[in-house]
Structure formats: structure tokens, C-alpha cells
Amino acid sequence: MSLVRAERLEKTYRVGDIDVPAIKGIDFAIEPGSFVAFVGPSGSGKSTLLNMIGCLDHPTSGTLTVLDTDIATLDRRAAARFRGEHIGFVFQDFNLIPVLTVFENIEYPLRMVQKWPAEKRHAQVALMLAAVGMADQANKRPDQISGGQKQRVAVARALVSQPKLVLADEPTANLDHDTAYRILELMKKMRDEFKTTFVFSTHDPKIMGEAETTFTLEDGRLDSDIQQEELGHA
After folding, report:
1. Which of 14, 24, 125, 187 sits between 20 and 30 A of 111, alpha carbons compared?
2. 204-211 average pLDDT score
């Protein structure tokens, strides 16, 4: 059973009086425990697609199933609950809360979204701090650690609630070459350890090289669909 499945998926935005298609009738499947990248130039639809998979946006038509749930059937409150229970997010600008410590940033989803009891929260955060090699930085705030360390914290925060799926939008964009590779290796290690599926939106060759499955988007369509259409007209 696929963890994520799209069939004839479309997303169109209304800008004034004009319909702007962002995703144009694509089909794909993502299997559990996989390391997947959606790649393509800016404006190809990568972030739109991740937003739909992450229940931040609804399809215009077609179906998008995540963990056996049709995303289009979720209202705003149900979508927020679904995200909190099943999906972690890693962003290119880290999105850490500056007034919270490393420990508190990782703890945040368990405290504010999932309402874990304190003892269970603290044990889980300690586990994640050790897993990402940040146990000795637990009491520091984001402005006291490096970019690579911030991304380690972001990975730990994404995984702390033990989600089945982690969505990473350009997670290496603000990292130098060596740090980016270390973060990718950390993510693969965490995938192997926690059986989490990682889905990336990126144009970074480093991620493309590490991904086990790559879907190439161009102008809202999968490259494979474009090639098949061109062959059909040949």
C-alpha cells in the first residue's frame, strides 16, 4: 500500500479573473520508508505539491491520498489535526522559535500540538537530541548555534512526534556543501532507524544524488508524462 498516491491531481489558483494552473493532472505513488525528491526549476510546482501532500492546501481536482486519507475531504481543523498527528516538516530557513531553547524547539510539537505529558515529552526530546548529536546544545537558543546545527534541530523537531512522513522544502538551500551532505546522511540514518518516509522539494543536485526515487516537474507536469505525450504525437 502506497503511503502517498496521486491520481489526475490538479491545482489551479485564481489570480484576479485569471485561472493559473500550478499542477496539471499528474499521477505518482510514494512507498513507505522511501527517500523521494520532487525536482525542477522554480515555478515548476514543487512547493505547491508539497503543500498539498502536507494538507496545507487542497487539490482543485483529482485525488491525493496520504496514509489512506483523501486530503480533499479534510476541513481546516481536520487537516491541522492530521498534520499534527502524521506529518513532520523541515524548511530551508529552519523556522526555529528564537526565544525557545534547542530543547524547547524540539519539544514544541509535543507540547502544543499533541499534548504529551511532561515526563513522556522530556524522554522523547532527549532521545531525539541524542539521535541528531545535539544533546550538549540543549539549553542554547537558535542564535547561539550554527546553520547546520539549526537544521539538525529542525530534523529532530520534525521527527519528535514519530510521524510516518516528513516533508522537506529545500532543506539544504542555506547550508554549505559539507554541512548539506551531513544533514542528508543524518536524514537517511533517521529514515533507517525510525522507518520514516522523507519527501523533498528541491533543485539541489546533492539531494537528487541521494534520493532513491526522483520525480521531475516541469510547468506543473511530471517529466515522464511530457515525454509520453511527445512520443504520442511523434
Report:
1. 187
2. 86
**CA–CA dist 74, 172 (Å, integer):** 31
Asked whether 69 and 2 are in contact (CB, 8 A), the reply is no
User: Which of 89, 16, 21 minimizes the C-alpha distance to 56?
Assistant: 89
Contact between residue 102 and residue 153 where contact means Cβ atoms under 8 Å apart? yes
> Could you give the CA distance from residue 52 to residue 17 in angstroms, rounded to a whole number?
23
Which CATH code fits 32-59+69-233?
Answer: 3.40.50.300
Burial of 31 from C-beta contacts in 10 A (0-12 / 13-18 / 19+): middle
Top-ranked range on mean pLDDT: pick from 14-23, 61-70, 187-196: 61-70
Beta-carbon-side half-sphere exposure of residue 122 (alpha carbons within 13 Å): 3
Average pLDDT for residues 31-51, to the nearest whole number?
A: 92
Cross-strand pairs, 198:
35, 166
29 has pLDDT over 50: yes
Domain boundaries, the chain: 32-59+69-233
User: pLDDT value at position 82?
Assistant: 93
Query: Between the CA of residue 28 and those of 38, 87, 218, 224, 230, what are the distances in Å?
Result: 11, 19, 15, 10, 19
Give the span between the Cα atoms of 203 and 169, in whole angstroms. 10
Q: Mind giving me the DSSP string for 94-134?
A: ----TTS-HHHHHHHIIIIIS---HHHHHHHHHHHHHHTT-
